[in-house]
Amino acid sequence: MSVLDLARPEIRTLQPYSSARMEAAGGQIMLNANESAWAPNGDGGLGCNRYPDPQPDALLQALAELYGVRRDQLFVGRGSDEAIDLLVRAFCRAGEDAILIQPPTFGMYAVSARIQNAAVLEVPLSRDFNLDVPALLAAITPAVKLVFLCTPNNPSGKSISREDIERVAQALAGKAVLVVDEAYVEFSGQRSVADLINRYEHLAVLRTLSKAWALAGARIGSLLASPEVIALIRRIMPPYPLPLPCVAAAMAELSPSGRAEARENIAIVREQRGMMHTALSQLPGVREVLLSDANFLAVRFDDAGTVYRQLLQAGIVVRDIRRYPFLQDALRITIGTPEENARVLAVLNETMLNKGWA
C-alpha cells in the first residue's frame, strides 16, 4: 500500500495550477506574468516587481542540507501552519475523515481540521505529559488520516522519546500519516526523527525557522516527507508562497555567520532555561516549574491570574495557558535575553513580597 492511498482521490488526480514563474525557465525578458517592468522604490535589488520562485532552489538546497534530507523530500511554505493546513486538505475529506491529537498541544492542528470539516479525535497526554502509546493506537479508526505528535510539546516543553515515535510509526503503517512537529527540537538534547522518513513513507516532520533561527516574522516553515507526499502537497500549494524578502532573510540566517550566531543564541537559551528553572522553583507562590526541552518554561502558581496581571502591568507579556488540560494553574514564560529574564524574576519577587507570599 502506498501512502498516497491515504490521500483524497480527487487531490491525487487534481491538475495543479501552473504559475507563470514555473513556465519561465531560461527567460530573460519576462512578459508572461503581467508584472510591472519597474522595481518598487526601496527594493534594494530584490526584484519585488517579479513573482518569486514557488520553491527557490538556493533555499531548498540550504534547508535540505540543514535538515539532512533530499530536496525532493522538502516543501517550504509560510511557517509550519501552512504545511499543517495543506496536509489536512490533502488527506482529509470534509465530513468524513479525522485527525488525532494529544492535548495539551499546539492549537493549529485542530483549527486546520475544523476549517476542513474534519473531525478531531483526542487522546490526552498523561498528567506528567507523557505520550500514552497504547491509548493512542487504540483510538485509531479508518477515518483517522493524520496523527500529530508535538515534540518538544507546546505548551509543556516535554519531549516524546524517539522509541515511542517509532513505535507509533510502525503501528500506523498503511493506516494514517504520522506528523511529528519539531518546532522546538533545536533546544532539545534529542535529535530529529527526520532520518526515519527513509524508513517510513507515511512519516512527515515539521520544522521551522521561527524559533531557534529568529525568523518568526519571515514565516519560513518546512515539511519533510517522502517524495510522494511532497509532490502531493506541491499540487495544492499556493502559486507563490514565499515572498522574496522572506527568502532573503532566510538565506542570510542560513549563511555561515548566521548559523554561528544561531548556535550561540541556542546555547544562551539553554543556559538561561536552567537558570530560570532553578530561580523560579525557589520563589514562594510557585508550585512547580515543568522540565522543558524547548525555549520556554511552563510554571504553576498558587495564583496564576494575579501573577499574569502583575507581569503585564510591568510590561511583561507571558502566555496564559490555564485553558489547557492539566495546566489550569500555569503560565508559559519564554526564555528571553539574560536582561529580560532578570526583569521577570525581579517583578515576580516584588509581586510575591507585596502579596505576602514571601
What is the CATH class designation of the largest domain?
Alpha Beta
Output the strand order for the largest sheet. Answer: 1-7-6-5-4-2-3
CATH superfamily of the largest domain: Type I PLP-dependent aspartate aminotransferase-like (Major domain)
Radius of gyration: 22 Å
Q: Give the N-to-C terminal Cα separation.
A: 62 Å
Shape: globular
Class inferred from helices and paired strands = alpha/beta
Q: Beta-sheet strand percentage?
A: 5-15%
Q: Describe the sheet with the most strands.
A: 7 strands, mixed
In round numbers, the mean pLDDT is 95
- Helix content class: 25-40%
CATH architecture of the largest domain: 3-Layer(aba) Sandwich
List SSEs in N-to-C order.
HHEHEHEHEHEEEHHHEEHEEH
Unreliable sequence segments: none
Tally of domains: 2
Count the beta strands.
11
Give a short synopsis of this structure.
This protein is an alpha/beta fold.
Protein model, in words:
With 358 residues, the protein is an alpha/beta fold. The protein folds into two domains: 218 residues, Aspartate Aminotransferase, domain 2; 97 residues, Aspartate Aminotransferase, domain 1 (Alpha-Beta Complex). Helix content is 35%, strand content 14%. The chain is built from eleven helices and eleven strands. The chain has a seven-stranded mixed β-sheet with strand order 1-7-6-5-4-2-3, with helices on both faces. The chain has a four-stranded antiparallel β-sheet with strand order 8-9-11-10, covered by helices on one side. The longest helix has 26 residues. The protein starts with 8 loop residues before the first helix and ends with a helix. The mean pLDDT is 95. GO terms for molecular function: histidinol-phosphate transaminase activity. InterPro entries: Aminotrans_II_pyridoxalP_BS, Aminotransferase_I/II_large, HisP_aminotrans, PyrdxlP-dep_Trfase, PyrdxlP-dep_Trfase_major, PyrdxlP-dep_Trfase_small. Keywords: Amino-acid biosynthesis, Aminotransferase, Histidine biosynthesis, Pyridoxal phosphate, Transferase.
